[in-house]
């Protein structure tokens, strides 16, 4: 489990004065009041939508720390990513999903679409994320997949980019005709006030029941998984649209030596020409991918990281069901 890291003020706190010690002894404490189990709420909230509408950015904002990678390349998220946030008596368990793919039917996309369907089948609330003022065939196909027995909230993301707010009224009416949405939330995932408002709206849909996770937990994904995702994010961000999205990352070694983590990873591409794109002139592109991934992992884990990267060609892996499974895609 990835737990929330202590902030600097918590680590470098000054020594407690005698008067403060006396006050604590008399019953005054800075410890938070324990939550009555009878008032606890906990539930699953799935975040769904077509590729590139801001689902992973929204998840990271809700969790309060990066647990899902982002890039402008479609299909960056390939796994069901679970992020947790506990606020007062309520524990939100958010599930980020890959954007549902309709253009290509290879083994990789079949696995990703299966992940989306599995994520929405047993949750308490669905956040259907679209770009405010926009709705196309790809959005419609995702909407058609949503179960009828789960409340769906229409999250109109990137609302800050809408220049004429009055144009949203007819758009909203057309959206209400498409589906009986439980709520309509115009927002920007980058605005903290909008995130807090979304928490308040979601809370009432979660059942009264004990928490499922420790209140400090942020994700159920392992550090090994986070390492592969961080390398993949930098790979996509630094190669742009040149490199096909079917490239992936496999962790070959993950060892811990005290405060140091040693990681060896392989970037898998489908063609020899793609290998050159990743390595770059005199290895500069690969070096930059490794440096940026290492720096982000050190920030995430608050420790030193030694990261070694290799590039290998595996032709047609995205069309091979067995190889797709071997690379961790269920």
TrEMBL record:
GO terms for cellular component: cytosol; plasma membrane. Residues 49-56 are annotated as: G1. The keyword Nucleotide-binding applies. One of its GO terms (biological process) is ribosomal small subunit assembly. Residues 157-160 are annotated as: G4. Monomer. This is GTPase Era. It comes from Hydrogenophaga taeniospiralis CCUG 15921.
